[in-house]
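hey can u run this one w/ nicotinamide-adenine-dinucleotide bound, need the structure tokens asap thx
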Amino acid sequence: MASKILIIGACGQIGTELTTALREKVGNNNVIASDIREGDEELMASGPFEILDATNFEQVEGVIEKHDINEVYLMAAMLSATAEKFPMKGWELNMNSLFHVLNIAKAGKIQKVFWPSSIAVFGPTTPKLDTPQQTVMEPSTVYGISKQAGERWCEYYYKKFGVDVRSIRYPGLISYKTLPGGGTTDYAVEIYHEALKTGKYTSFLKEDTELPMMFMDDAIRATISLMEAPAEKVKVRSSYNLSALNFTPKTLAASIRKHIPEFEISYAPDFRQEIADSWPSSIDDSHAREDWGWQHEYDLEKMTSEMLEGIREVHHV
Ligand SMILES: NC(=O)c1ccc[n+]([C@@H]2O[C@H](COP(=O)([O-])OP(=O)(O)OC[C@H]3O[C@@H](n4cnc5c(N)ncnc54)[C@H](O)[C@@H]3O)[C@@H](O)[C@H]2O)c1
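ok here u go:
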């Protein structure tokens, strides 16, 4: 039987590309996209879509029953920078949506769940370089606290109730199809758009702030390959560290300058600097590499070429 998949939060930065990738793999009608709002034209035209509020249990359960869903990818969340502005709303969305999906899985109505965590689970007391899978975790943001709690609950539901839930601690994700949704690493997407549009960019992080990042194609491939891995290979049931590249605004600007020599960058750090300072600079993802064969494909140069080409093509800059 083909998987019937529901993506919640399908119109966001990751959901949009995940929907396309999964539809190509299992067929358009086997992937139900859903979100609290409509997505871009291409997504809306490519297959079934439901308006759904992830914090409303009856709505989530109703869509799962209506479409006979067996796998859920829960991508709806409030991201790091936005959740600092609306802490209670962020907590409510990030936690309640997860509980709804986990409880529906516990009841046996779905067989597999993907839920994304983040490098935001780490905090200022975490070792910053090559941050291990298991280490000190004292997140200092609302978002990070919600992701850490979510990880604990995922592992709990796996151990207590046998729920097959799988998760990745995404680093900052870089993509050109959909704009990012209010995270601390958004500068690394905006910079490409501004480089092409105006030839300059003012970074909200300092020039030497190094953070773990990943090109979206790698993140989507990782997500699908974790979900396809045999259950016994998925040994971490909280969330896997995942890594591809690390860079600073300064090194990113230098890679853009190889294509646009006149590009200028300036720096005006804001409240997001403090969030970035509390996160790792690099991540040890050897568990993901050993357990289910993770390998990244994009380095900084390859990503920059693809980003500039993609933005020119999709956004006609
Ligand atoms: N993008 C990144 O760099 C990154 C990094 C680490 C983790 N993550 C995690 O990955 C997941 C997806 O992130 P993203 O970047 O695509 O986020 P995004 O903000 O771009 O997309 C989230 C989507 O959820 C939808 N949504 C919001 N409230 C909803 C609700 N009540 N019901 C249904 N849908 C709702 C939004 O409309 C949006 O389309 C999140 O859990 C996020 O924390 C993202």
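The first strand starts at residue 5 and ends at 8. anyway lmk if its weird
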